[in-house]
Amino acid sequence: MAQISLTVSDELLQYLVQKVDDPNILIESLLQEWRKQEEDQELAQACKLVDELKLGWDNEWQQAAFTDWEVSG
């Protein structure tokens, strides 16, 4: 696994240490959640474009996409 270095103020670091057992896990979790949100937004934009261009997005495909999205969280 690659490593990165993050610089935060002493005040913020102290706050994190008081609130969580391992700030590294919190930061990694937040970054993963941000990544998932970005991917979801890109997928939603692609679906919107498919709808606008009427590229054959039928009800069956749409239902399958919604089901996949709901299952993924």
Topology:
Blueprint: H1 10-19, H2 23-53, H3 59-72
Brief account:
With 73 residues, this protein is mainly alpha-helical. It is built from three helices and no strands.
Can you tell me about this structure?
By secondary structure, the protein is mostly helical. 75% of the residues lie in helices and 0% in strands. It is built from 3 helices and no strands. The protein has helices at residues 10-19, 23-53, 59-72. It is elongated, with a radius of gyration of 19 Å.
Quaternary organisation: single chain
C-alpha termini separation: 25 Å
Q: Based on DSSP secondary structure assignment, what is the total number of beta strands?
A: 0
Poorly predicted regions are none
Order of helices and strands: HHH
- Bulk shape: elongated
User: What structural category arises from helix and sheet content?
Assistant: mainly alpha
Features:
73 residues; 75% helix; 3 helices; mainly alpha; single chain
